[in-house]
Amino acid sequence: MLDADKIKALEAEYVLHTYNRPPYVLERGEGVWLYDTEGKAYLDFVSGIAVNALGHSHPAVVQAIAEQAARLDHVSNLYHTAPQAQLAQMLVQNSFADKVFYCNSGAESVEAAIKFARKWGRTHHGNAKTDFITLSGAFHGRTLGALALTPRDYYQDPFRPLMPGTKLATFNDLASVEAQIDEHTCAIIVEPLQGEGGVHAATPEFLRGLRELCDRNDALLIYDEVQCGLGRTGTLWGHEPSGVLPDIMTLAKPIAGGLPMGCTLMTQAVADTIEPGDHASTFAGSPIVSAAAIASFQIISEPSFLEHVRWCGSYLEAGLLKLQESHDCIQQVRGRGLIWGVECNTAVTPALNVATEQGLLALNAGPNVLRLLPPLIIEQEHMDRALTILDQAFGAL
Ligand SMILES: Cc1ncc(COP(=O)(O)O)c(C=O)c1O
Q1: Reduced to 3 states, what is the DSSP secondary structure of residue 338?
Q2: Closest CA to 23 of 49, 4, 48
Q3: What pTM did the predictor assign?
Q4: pLDDT tens per residue, range 242-271
Q5: Which of helix, strand or coil describes residue 43?
Q6: For 205-250, how does the pLDDT look when each residue is reduced to its tens digit (9 = 90+)?
Q7: Which of 105, 108, 139, 190 most suits a substitution to test ligand 1, by most atoms within 8 Å of the C-beta?
Q8: For ligand 1, what atom is nearest to the CA of residue 195?
Q9: d(Cα 56, Cα 350) in Å, to the nearest integer?
Q10: Is the Cβ–Cβ distance between 370 and 341 less than 8 Å?
């Protein structure tokens, strides 16, 4: 068994340095808890950045993976297999969509959305309808197409030139979108609730306005629900409270209980423009990953489970608002379900460090926002413990 120092030395020598990591090494997870190599326990309010919706090693997911791995692990998408067909049926029957495309990550699901929107545009309107409108604060991923839709110089500048034909408008400001949309626009992409951008929800009026603008200009509306979808906000889909439906929707993070999967959902009108060979992926929708996703989806889509998320969300919100009363550094508490952002008047890193010391993992969303993304299976006792630790943590700011 390798000790923490040896693991970090190996990593420093052999793994490309693209992440700045804390000094401890995580070794084991169970439910809402993570344990490092020294045996220290951490309450996990990061959840692999919204991946571990069912916590770590949920028995139903573990069983589904083990059974499927023993029966049929991977075959190419050249062949039919049952799990991906069954999962697609579940996703379609529980959403606006008619068809599902499988891939392996959030960025890939956005890349697929870009390609499908372009193909739809070209099929119906010729070569001039290829542009996208993205919104301030958006995060859609790091691959080159998704990066072009992620309007932050810090992410984009080292990798220019980016995909051309991308226009920027202001989140929750319909007039700014109206000023950008024209006959060349094939799609607007929006997160119904921005995660990386600081935990900001799109207003129902904004989403309704985007829908109308798209319809008037023959453009598609794409929702990126990679972070806010699948129960995170207390409803199955982040856009549900608005009642406004998209033409395409991207999913990833929590969908396969911790295994890598992305999905791009679409209406029949979009699907009708896609042909065999237009897009593909070697690993996508493999039997093991799809089996894990089915097990996970069956739990998350239960009305009583979503009710639990909403109850926890209200409890956590009340606790955070109480903390705001006693900590002047807290400017605003915002979120829904089990995604919360606490905006402070200063950088939150010292608070995150105190929380870690005290056994609570949380993260940021921009320098001044402390973000909480607990597993959706948390209970009151976990929230009470987290709030006690956060009380000390905000005291450090
Ligand atoms: C809304 C949204 N879209 C896309 C992505 C990219 O996902 P991935 O890191 O799996 O490529 C993220 C990741 O944080 C995200 O939050």
Answers
A1: coil
A2: 4
A3: 0.98
A4: 999 999 999 999 999 999 999 999 999 999
A5: strand
A6: 999 999 999 999 999 999 999 999 999 999 999 999 999 999 999 9
A7: 139
A8: 16
A9: 27
A10: yes
Q: What is the 3-state secondary structure (H, E, C) of 194-254?
A: ECCCCCEECCHHHHHHHHHHHHHCCCEEEEECCCCCCCCCCCCCCCHHHCCCCCEEEECCC
CA distance 67 to 102: 21
- Collapsing DSSP states into helix, strand and coil, what is residue 65? helix
Catalytic residue among 45, 116, 132, 139: 139
pLDDT per residue over 327-382, tens digit each? 999 999 999 999 999 999 999 999 999 999 999 999 999 999 999 999 999 999 99
Looking from the CA of residue 110, the nearest atom of ligand 1 is 4
Distances (CA, A) of 271 to 57, 140, 258: 35, 22, 28
Please, what's the b/e burial string for 15-28 (b: 16 or more CB within 10 A of its CB; e: otherwise)?
A: eeeeeeeeebbbee
107 lines ligand 1 (CB under 6 A): yes
Q: Is residue 1's pLDDT more than 90?
A: no
And the tokens for 323? Answer: 């903390």
Identify the three-state secondary structure at position 262: strand
Q: What structural domains and CATH numbers belong to the chain?
A: 4-58+303-395 (3.90.1150.10), 72-300 (3.40.640.10)
- Rg of the Cα atoms in the chain: 21
Three-point CA angle 91, 92, 94, nearest 5°: 70
